[in-house]
Amino acid sequence: DDNAYNMTEYYPHNIIVTRCFAWNNKGWGIGSNFANSILVANNVCWNNDTQGISLWNTQDSFVVGNRCYGNASFSINLELCNRITVGDNIVNTTNLGIRAFNTLDSVIVGNTIEMDSTFYLHTGILVESGVGAQGTTYKQRPCNNIQISSNMVKSIGSEGMPLKVATDSGYGDNTNIMINDNIITNTVTSKG
What we know:
Number of strands: 19
Largest sheet: 12 strands, parallel
Shape: globular
Radius of gyration: 15 Å
Helix content: under 10%
């Protein structure tokens, strides 16, 4: 059963990734999978073919003070994570900024995101749930207890959304999503 594991049983890894320059990789810039107690801090992730920083099945970790530029997909991706803090990062993207996907009890705070997108689905901060890549994921669950606060999202492209909380994923609604004290500047008058 893909849903049988319990993330609270992960042994702490105590891994620190700091002051690295991850660029032009054929996949992620920096990534974790089935990890606990990871600190990803003060790195630069630039022009990677998929995601700048990606935490999958990870818990009790911090992504802070990073700079993400020009990554092909999400700049910072949390997928099936528990208790993650994403703070004080700078993201510049023509695509997708920060995403919490099937994630619980996490905080997105104090980030600066500038997006210059010409595609309507691109999003500065996105909270969503559903199935993962190739139609499968370990836990298909809604997001719960996500705090989005004190972020600055600037949308300068002709399309895209600065902030989106998706609902009705087929796996239950995302609940307890707290959004407060964000500054959203959107030059696209039809979105917001």
